[in-house]
Design a protein that fits this description.
heterodimer; A: 302 residues; alpha/beta; Rossmann fold; 4-stranded parallel beta sheet; 15% strand; B: 157 residues; alpha+beta; Alpha-Beta Plaits; SH3 type barrels; 2 domains; 39% strand; elongated; pyrimidine biosynthesis (chain B)
């Protein structure tokens, strides 16, 4: 049976750990010709330069060749071709499909249609599992473990798919603590809190972004997006509240690291960049190794 | 007076089935959806409907009697989402041979529309598929977009 990666919950804890091991291996030795002679289709039905370059770098470092498109205007979708037909055709050409799509569930559907593995590079607001795995690899690298992590999530916790998937994945490990810092209108949805309660995992909710972060091992920042607010007044009230600056990191633990899925706008002040606790650019680099690991895993290359 | 006569007449008429299935306690507003889900508009059996009948529990109820038709459980459970209190009487030779209640299945394939407008199933010709994660109230998790359609958001396809 072919392996796909559509949703972070498709993988078991053992598979998470295997991806972590493989990522470390690729970090030590990034250029391995495991995809030599293989063709990978990179289908971006919605532009995402960052994710696409990360995947394409990973594929190149594995010695694979790439076909595909970077934005929907240059794809057959503009001629009205269905996703079904595009995937049927491309799965005859390529050995692996990496896809990003604006509609939710598109990747799951593609996996049903395709004869080759599908890696979901984001389907609308639903899932972006490779981001979650690179977040986990970043936590593992900076903390030495994925157990006993006190994880602070800050900003838009309602719509942010990265925090939802990370919550699901980290709840598989020993004794995590979650702290949610968000305006009332962007709090962690009920269903995810229920998920933690069912597993007896502790979590705390805060509206104020204050020195409570002194407890944190990881501070995961997200962007508060204007388009999420139906009331512009509400946005004006909160937009500058969830900003991290260097002074706020003074009394934090020495091991704390600041993560952000990028792109950032103003939620991390640029003075944080020079702090040894800033980790978001390294996190992005970890994405290449993690994606090499994911590709190798789903294609049974290692 | 006139209303009672009508009820009596209807009762007489719908009682007259020799073999088949009586589906009772359907919410009156769901009658036509039940007909459509069970495909009763496409079969040639004799069928009698009654609707807007008085019912203490449901307000207004509907009843369907289908001659010479015996449903499989899988088939009949499809109506559980819109007629959760429906009761079936299996009739053989004018007698009630068996009684059944409907049960919400664990998986719902087709029938229901995903509530999420950004779900791929609302943009391409795909059979919807849901896992029933709660039965009272009903909550359906879409296999594709992973969003939950709650009971008051359920729309039939």
């Amino acid at each position: 049976m072919k392996k796909d990666l559509i949703s972070i919950t498709d993988f078991s804890k053992d598979e998470y750990l295997r991806i972590m091991d493989l990522a470390a291996d690729f970090e030590a030795n990034p250029n391995q010709e495991l995809l030599k002679g293989k063709v990978v289709a990179s289908l971006f039905f919605e532009p995402s330069t960052r994710t696409r370059l990360s995947f394409e770098t990973a594929i190149n470092r594995l010695g694979g060749r790439i076909v595909g498109f970077a934005d929907p205007d240059s794809s057959s979708a503009t001629k009205g071709e269905t996703l079904h037909d595009t995937i049927r055709m491309v799965s005859n050409y390529a050995d692996l499909i990496v896809m990003r799509h604006p509609l939710e569930g598109a990747a799951r559907y593609a996996a049903e249609v395709s004869s080759v593995p599908i890696i979901n590079a984001g389907d609308g607001a639903n899932q972006h599992p490779t981001q979650t795995l690179l977040d986990m690899y970043s936590i593992l690298k900076t903390q030495g473990t994925l157990d006993n992590i006190n994880l602070f999530m800050v900003g838009d916790l309602k719509f942010g798919r990265t925090v939802h998937s990370l919550l699901q994945a980290m709840s598989e490990f020993e004794n995590p603590i979650f702290n949610f810092i968000a305006p009332e209108s962007l709090q962690m949805p009920r269903g995810y809190k229920h998920h933690l309660e069912e597993r007896g995992i502790r979590y705390f909710e805060h509206e104020e972004f204050t020195d409570i972060i002194s407890e944190a091992d990881i501070i995961y920042m997200t962007r508060v997006q204007k388009e999420r607010f139906s009331d512009p007044m509400e946005y004006e009230k909160v937009k500058d509240v969830y900003i991290l600056n260097k002074a706020m990191l003074e009394n934090t633990k020495p091991n704390v690291r600041v993560l952000h899925p990028l792109p950032r706008v103003n939620e991390i002040a640029t003075d944080v960049d020079s702090s040894e606790k800033a980790y978001y650019f390294d996190q992005a680099l970890n994405g290449v190794f993690t994606r090499e690991a994911i590709i190798s895993h789903v294609m049974n290359l290692k | 007076m006139e209303k009672n006569d009508m009820k009596k007449k209807l009762k007489l008429k719908v009682s007259a089935i020799k073999d088949g299935t009586v589906i009772d306690h359907i919410p009156a507003k769901s009658l036509f959806e039940v007909i459509s889900i069970l495909g009763l508009d496409k079969i040639e059996n004799q069928i009698t409907f009654g609707t807007n009948l008085e019912s203490g529990k449901l307000g207004a109820k509907a009843i369907i009697k289908v001659s010479d038709k015996f449903f499989e459980n899988d088939e009949i459970n499809k109506i559980a989402l819109i007629a959760p209190h429906a009761k079936l009487n299996i009739i053989r030779d004018y007698e009630v041979a068996e009684k059944k209640i409907v049960e919400i299945p664990q998986k719902i394939t087709g029938i229901v529309k995903c509530f999420n407008p950004k779900c791929i199933t609302n943009h391409e010709k795909i059979t919807t598929s849901f896992r029933v994660i709660n039965t009272n109230p009903v909550a359906l998790k879409c296999k594709y977009c992973e969003k939950i359609t709650a009971e008051d958001q359920i729309k039939m396809l």
